[in-house]
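User: Please fill in residues for this 77-position structure.
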C-alpha cells in the first residue's frame, strides 16, 4: 500500500510515459518501411513520402491525445 501511495502523485506521468512507447514504435516502423520502399522503387518517391508523412501525422496525433487526455479527465468532477 505504501508504494502505491508514493506513486499516486505521478500516475499521469508514468501513464503517458508508457503510452508514448506505442507511437514511438509506430513512427520507427513507418519511416523504416518508407525508406525501404523508396530504396526498392525510387520512381514512387512522391507517393511513398506522402503516405509516410500521413501515417506519421496520424501516429503523432494519438501521442498528443495521450498527453492531453489526463488533463481533460482530471478536470471532470
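Assistant: Residues filled in for all 77 positions:
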Amino acid at each position: 500500500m505504501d508504494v502505491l501511495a508514493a506513486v499516486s502523485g505521478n500516475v499521469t506521468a508514468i501513464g503517458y510515459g508508457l503510452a508514448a512507447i506505442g507511437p514511438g514504435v509506430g513512427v520507427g516502423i513507418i519511416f523504416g518501411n518508407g525508406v525501404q520502399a523508396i530504396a526498392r522503387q525510387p520512381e514512387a518517391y512522391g507517393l511513398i513520402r506522402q503516405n509516410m508523412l500521413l501515417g506519421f501525422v496520424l501516429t503523432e496525433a494519438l501521442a498528443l491525445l495521450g498527453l492531453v487526455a489526463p488533463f481533460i479527465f482530471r478536470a471532470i468532477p
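For context: The longest helix spans residues 45-75.
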